[in-house]
TrEMBL record, chains A, B:
Protein name as it appears in the record: Saccharopine dehydrogenase C-terminal domain-containing protein
Segments forming domain Saccharopine dehydrogenase NADP binding: 3-144
Domain of life per record: Bacteria
SUPFAM superfamilies associated with the record: NAD(P)-binding Rossmann-fold domains
Residues of the Saccharopine dehydrogenase-like C-terminal domain: 149-407
Length: 423, 423
């Protein structure tokens, strides 16, 4: 296996540090728009594993599918890991298809709200552009494994595991994400610094959130499908494990809702994120001002998108690790009927503690928690434990080998524990 | 009198439309960084007064004091009206001094917070840089009439009038500004569009607000001077006249507080602005994100200040008039002892109704309400009713001729009524 990872930001850098401990691949090329960033990642993995010679840095423009295809041909990559913002999904996806590489990402192609009823009906959905090409990928015998970060990703693996091993029927697959992270500036005062790209946070939180329902009564008829809501809908206090505690969560547009119903049977699929009061009021302000816009404005003859400025003024999520404290939790709350026929409510989750991820990987917890999943998936593809073609989500594959490899102690496994809580 | 007005934004454009009806000057040159904007203003006044030939458009870079001085020499300007953002105060002020022109502005040189106690002690105050040069101006026999918009400006005139004619002693000179304006997008939905420059709103609302106190007890001692507070301090519901009604007002850094105590005797001088809940939460969000910053950041090799982006994405205050509804009120609440020896509380105010200002001047009410004051002041200087040299605020001059000229019916006066309310 020859891996080309595009993006040496927070997640890409952490993925390289996790991958360097594994021996399932021959070459791991780190590509970035900024060659210095790619080199920094390569240097840091080489410092962790003296003598390591599988890592190389190249430059690539992720917005140009021809440049992506050229980089694949140059490196002989068999698998491309997309570790950049979701706006680059389609050029990387298309570049892979053109050059015949397999593809993995951690977020899917972007949505467009419904023209007439944006907060009721789904328009172009997350991943629609990718799934439209599913038969091409299948025909070519190539795999696009989409949404294999932590959420989507590990959450989808948990959902598949619950469906296969814990439940006989499922009412709701409800991804719930929350944290108790705090950021302190170098001078010791508390500041504002999201754990992942503000560009992506704006995208997913201000788009109409989507839910899947098997039996929604619409005007006297029962309909099955995807429906949307206004941003920040249906706030719910969810109690997160391992000391994080209760956090108010609201509906957010997320890939799990689009992926799980394709392979798993449930009455309802939802995603709620523990945004907190401050983040919600910041997002509302950005929207009111139009600073969430991706369309460039002209300032003194210079074209710049307001959202790019917002992302640029915040601390880089890749470098805030030393200033963070706390834990972040990703998981799926599954409700329904257990295999014993009794009502069951089970939360399957993973908690990352920033203190531990900084100590062991020099990576902040949110990016680290995202980064290990595609590496585990690549290892399962390398060994043949996972195999397939087409455009597929993580829940299209057997969850057991993933969770076993994840939890098995090093050096056989990754030594990463996950939890189950009955409620 | 030969007038050079620098800035053909909202206020400048309205000032030209008000000035074109008056005959006290010989030439009125409209200068802007963007020559097209200056030409648009000149064309609009010529359309209002066929045959009008006193107006001319030139280009000038307000950030360059040499360019300002050159424009004064080119046009033979005797009086320069600064109608641009307060960040350009010093280059225009210095350019006038160098070229020997008299100077008027509607906002003063910028403040810098106190290094150690920003929310308690005043650092560099609004206007400090200008007042530092007062003796030079006085020696040269030239006048810098600072803060002669509506607030500061008309508010300072009201305060002087109250001190001279209504009160024997004053407890508080409290400028209070509030509105019931609403902005509707072309599609009819309500949007967010401040009535004046968002750059300036951020500057004045996020800087530590300043108050003046004659007798403040500090650590057992009585001190006289300027003190600061945290932004949005001491919220107070103030009932505005003419149907605007109660609006929550908070302390804001403003020139009145720095000007009035120099010429008027009061126990306390304050400024409170009816920001409203939405504006406060937006300003807090901008500050949390660092989007209030004037320091450029680099985006893909381009340098741009976040605050410039915020201002650029909002509707231009100069052009929102047709989409606005409502009224705005500027005034001073004076409390103390009346000339009859009885306790007195009097609000002196001016209300501008957007419907009327659009109809009569094709100008939205906030910029129009700012714009008429420097024109009235210029007329008083032309006739000799106001005369003097040095750096002086509006309250350094007799208020009566100003208020008489303002309220007298056209064509003798400006036909602009102001109000007094006993409380």
């Amino acid at each position: 296996m020859r891996i080309l990872m595009i993006g040496a930001g927070g997640v890409g850098d952490a993925a390289a540090k996790i991958a360097v401990e594994r021996d399932f691949y021959d070459v791991f090329v780190v590509a970035d728009y900024d060659i210095e960033r790619a080199r920094r990642t390569v240097a840091s993995v080489q410092a962790r594993q003296p003598g390591e010679n599988r890592f190389h840095a190249v430059t690539v423009d992720a917005s140009d599918e021809n440049a992506v295809a050229a980089a694949i041909r140059l490196t002989g990559a068999t698998h491309v890991l997309n570790a950049v913002d979701p706006r680059f999904v389609m050029p990387i996806f298309n570049g892979c298809r053109a050059a015949g590489a397999n593809y993995l990402d951690m977020a899917m192609s972007l949505s467009l709200p419904h023209k007439d009823a944006p907060y009721d009906k789904a328009g172009v959905k997350l991943g629609d552009e990718q799934f439209a090409q599913a038969s091409d990928w299948e025909g070519a015998g190539r795999l696009a494994l989409v949404g294999i970060g932590v959420e989507p990703g590990l959450s989808d693996v948990f959902a598949r595991y619950a469906a296969d091993h814990l439940f006989s029927s499922i009412d709701e697959l409800g991804t719930r994400d929350g944290a108790n992270l705090a950021y302190f500036r170098p001078d010791g005062t508390e500041g504002f610094a999201p754990g992942f790209s503000m560009w992506t946070i704006i995208e997913e939180c201000l788009n109409p959130p989507v839910v899947w329902e098997k039996s929604r009564v619409v005007g006297g008829n029962v309909e099955t499908g995807f429906f949307t809501l206004p941003p920040f809908s249906e706030p719910e206090v969810f109690d997160f494990p391992e000391g994080i505690g209760p956090v108010e969560c609201v509906h957010v547009e997320h890939e799990e809702v689009l992926l799980m119903p394709r392979w798993l049977d449930a009455e309802r699929v939802t995603f709620k994120y523990g945004l907190g009061e401050q983040m919600i009021s910041i997002l509302k302000a950005l929207h009111t001002l139009g600073l969430d816009s991706k369309d460039p404005v002209t300032i003194k003859g210079i074209q710049v998108a307001p959202r790019d400025i917002v992302a640029a003024v915040l601390p880089d999520p890749a470098t805030i690790g030393p200033q963070l404290t706390g834990k972040t939790c990703a998981g799926v709350m599954v409700t329904g009927t257990g295999v014993d026929g009794q009502p069951r409510s089970t939360y399957l989750y993973h908690v990352a503690d920033n203190e531990v991820t900084m100590r062991d990987y020099d990576a902040q917890c949110v990016v680290w928690q995202t980064a290990f999943n595609p590496i585990v998936a690549l290892e399962l593809l390398a060994t043949g434990a996972w195999a397939g073609a087409g455009v597929r989500g993580p829940e299209a594959f057997d969850a057991a080998p993933f969770l076993e490899l994840l939890a098995a102690p090093k050096p056989e496994g990754y030594g990463i524990e996950w939890g189950i809580e009955e409620r």
